[in-house]
Amino acid sequence: MDPLEIPPGPLFLEPDAPPCYRIGIDLGGSKIEGIRLTPEGRLEYRDRVVTPQGTADDYAAILSAVVDLTAAILRGTPDGRHSPAVGIGIPGSLDAATGRVHNANATSLIDQRLQADIEARLGRPVGMENDANCFAAAESRMGAGQGHRVVFGIIMGTGVGGGLVVDGRVHHGRHGIAGEWGHLAVAPEGRRCWCGNRGCVETLLSGPGLAAAYETRFNAKASPEAIVEGYRRDDAACSVIFEEFLEDFGRCVGGLISILDPDAVVLGGGLSNIDELYTLGAERVRRYAFHPAPQTPILKHRLGDSAGVFGAAWIGR
Ligand SMILES: [Zn+2]
């Protein structure tokens, strides 16, 4: 969905925080997107630039691109009683102790002190969160999770990310890893995960995980889309793999609900467009959650690809 097409609706504005302009920057592998929200939470400006790659020093180039885009949006911000908040979403995690980026799929960011470097260049604080936390914050504030106090956001795409939002705020935990449910190791005999463990939720519920399950079983390749499509027309091989996928989804999300008992779970990422997750998948979730009749809604995202940049605005400082 184009962010400018987001319909105005009731927004979760913090009763205890002074209203201010909010600038969100979403640093992605191919583009860097920036927006500005008014103190009322309405989108009033949007811009994007290409993410530099293949330069002599990609980190320096990305840093400059983020700083320049942020500075330009800051310069255009009308004067208000409170200084604007700036938040940046990144494709990786921030180590709570060292402030360095880790687990980033944009390798030039790894081990860099991105937040500190941006703050030094801008001369002001900025908030920074991984993309799953931004997704969860945005869907909780202005998307599918609106009206729910405790929202768990799940991104099922090339990986599996998670974020926990309570009353509109991201919960970080002791090490800054709260919500990293994608690396819960649930299958000891399962496939090796890039994190070093075996059988992580990510190896089961990501797009590559679904494709790998098919390849391992049938020694043939099929894309996640082809597997889902095959299941829908009763192809035997696709049905076996997709039934297992639904079962894994039920077990993993059911367990998550047993631990957190959130008010809503919101799904994003490419695989979240599989309709069966909200019917057959949700049925299995209810079977595995530790309650006779769990009511937890499993919701499809409402903000689409724009959740990252909106979430960045909401986690700003
Ligand atoms: Zn893992």
Question: Descriptors for this entry?
Answer:
single chain; about 325 residues; alpha/beta; Nucleotidyltransferase, domain 5; 2 domains; 5-stranded mixed sheet; 9 helices; 12 strands; globular; disordered N terminus; binds zinc ion
Structural features, described:
The chain has about 325 residues and is α/β, with parallel strands linked by helices. It has two domains: about 140 residues, ATPase, nucleotide binding domain (Nucleotidyltransferase, domain 5, 2-Layer Sandwich); about 150 residues, ATPase, nucleotide binding domain (Nucleotidyltransferase, domain 5, 2-Layer Sandwich), CATH 3.30.420.40. Helix content is about 35%, strand content about 20%. Helix 1 packs across helix 2, helix 5 packs across helix 7 and helix 6 packs across helix 7. The longest helix is centred in the last third of the chain and has 25 residues. The two termini are about 25 Å apart. The N terminus is likely disordered. The site of zinc ion has 6 residues, from loops.
Distance between the first and last residues' Cα: 26 Å
The count of β-strands is: 12
Largest sheet features: 5 strands, mixed
**Assembly form of the protein:** single chain
The average pLDDT is 92
**Physical arrangement of strands within the biggest beta sheet:** 3-2-1-4-7
Topology as a string of helices (H) and strands (E): EEEHEEEHEHEEEHHHHEHEH
The helix count comes to 9
Here the CATH topology of the largest domain equals Nucleotidyltransferase, domain 5
Bound molecules: zinc ion
What's the CATH C level of the largest domain?
Answer: Alpha Beta
